[in-house]
Amino acid sequence: MTRAASESATKAGGEARPSRPRETGLVFDIKRFAIHDGPGIRTTVFLKGCPLACRWCHNPESIRAEREHSWRGGRCTGCGACAEACPQDAISLRDGRPVTDTARCAFCGQCVAACPPGAREIVGREMTVEQVLAEVAKDAVFYEESRGGVTFSGGEPLAQPGFLRACLAACKGGGFHTAVDTTCHAPWEVIESIREHTDLFLCDVKHVDTAVHERYTGVGNELILANLRKLSGGGARIWVRIPILPGINDGEGAIMAAGEFVSSLGGVEHVDLLPYNEGGRGKRSRLEASEEALDLTAPGAEHMSQIASKLSTLGLSVRVGG
């Protein structure tokens, strides 16, 4: 018997137990030295998949809960190397553009490796908790010096509850401060299951009018607001994040309604106003079968300052771009 098998044997019968399957999740990016996703210097782990489909999302590659291809048309030369390299014959050229039959694609990555100008990318990779912990542990010294830590974002990290819970527990076990950046659109039981391992919640409030919220995100906000009330009532540390979307939620009525809701909560330490990020449009154009992005313009610094001033009158601690 090998050492591993011996260690897994039961004391009573000596029969080897089957090894416990490792928890895995779908990650689409890990950003080191992040400074806007919680206190201090942080590593942000982005999980793939989201129940919302925000038309302004600056990470549109995070929405689908499966791996997908990203293609940069400006780099592609139409050489066909990707099609030749594909062992599944899933890629064909149409008018000089490679088109992937996702039903046949095995996401082996050979097309990515074969592309001379680097026009192709596979978004999303399966990772174990141990792999995630190994990545975030690389910057432990920076967390300690800056009082930073690890943030789990997305997509919506609560959409992978088992994996998220296991990652948070592992990070806490490693002595790292933990934060979860979330829409709060999940069953309360899911949020409750991660609370003991989460030091800080970064919660979005996009719009308090549920009809407007559904028009632009695909879901109403009743569950979101209810979960925020429960979180704050339970004593959780919360930073609220409001993305400022010109023509959607930046009017005085919408802003003050959001501020009044936030001020009714306990435990909200800061309100961070996040100006609309135009980078999502470029990313969205690279994805196959992606919904067209809204044509918005990022708000100016003066407008952001005016919004912050209005919210401050409600007694809130407001930061711009935090």
Would you give an account of this structure?
The protein has 322 residues and is α/β, with parallel strands linked by helices. It folds into two domains: 240 residues, TIM Barrel (Alpha-Beta Barrel), CATH 3.20.20.70; 55 residues, Alpha-Beta Plaits (2-Layer Sandwich). Helices cover 32% and strands 22% of the residues. It contains twelve helices and 13 strands. It has a nine-stranded mixed β-sheet. Strands 3-6 form a two-stranded antiparallel sheet. Strands 4-5 form a two-stranded antiparallel ribbon. Strand 9, helix 7 and strand 10 form a beta-alpha-beta unit. Helix 4 packs across helix 6 and helix 6 packs parallel to helix 7. The protein is globular, with a radius of gyration of 22 Å.
